[in-house]
Amino acid sequence: MHDSGFRRRVAALAASLLLAVSCAGATARPDGDTAALWGFVRLVPRDGVTPPRAGGGAYGDRRLRDVTLVDYDRPGFAVVWAEGEPAGGGAARDVALALSDGPSGVRIDPEHAAVASGARVVLRNDTRSAHTVSCPEAGLLRRLAPGESALLRGEPGSELGVFLLGEGRAESRVFVAPGAFAVAREDGRWELRGLRPGPQRLHAWHPRFPSAVRSAEAVRGAATRVDLELGVDRGEEAADARR
After folding, report:
1. Reported pTM
2. What are the chain's domains?
3. What angle (nearest 5°) sits at the alpha carbon of residue 165, between those of residues 161 and 166?
4. How far apart are CA 227 and CA 242, in angstroms?
5. What gap in Å lies between CA 18 and CA 212, rounded to an integer?
6. Cβ contacts of residue 61 below 8 Å, gap of 6+?
């Protein structure tokens, strides 16, 4: 009897673990009267162009020999935000940037970030020397002593470029999201929860491609998939020109 009960408990535990594994990565249904949207951000090259593979080859134009190749299999840093939806929750927290010493010199970490409208970007000098930094969009031009910080704010929908002056090419770009937003994972997957049911207008921002836009219907109590494509021929300006 004891052995039989033990086997039953082990079988139940195994079944629960199998269920958890099978559900990993799935999008859960939203609670209450809200809706959820999720999907993937994909990079698409210009029509008729076959890009070189990242990590192999180079751009044909010699003027672009120092340009980092785009890996079209992975979007890298991308932000998806919903028009008219408040950021809310933890999304409105401040974002921290840091000057730090790296193998090839001083760098700004992270290289890309996103912050909700109204939140602050805190830039701190974590090196042992003073450095001059600039952020034209925030009107910043300042020399930061070791341990010193500067606060930056940006207009909704703007991009804050933070630069280290006179010491290499270190920089960071921070997108100020006008509404509820999600930063895509490495594979491009994103998810927005707690949305109002009904028509939604989604935007995708990327540091190297024109922003994209797509309309979607958010269904009460459901998670709806919406994929967004980023590319020179698929930006918001290109979409407006085709109308």
Report:
1. 0.74
2. 29-85+180-243 (2.60.40.1120), 91-178 (2.60.40.420)
3. 150
4. 20
5. 38
6. none
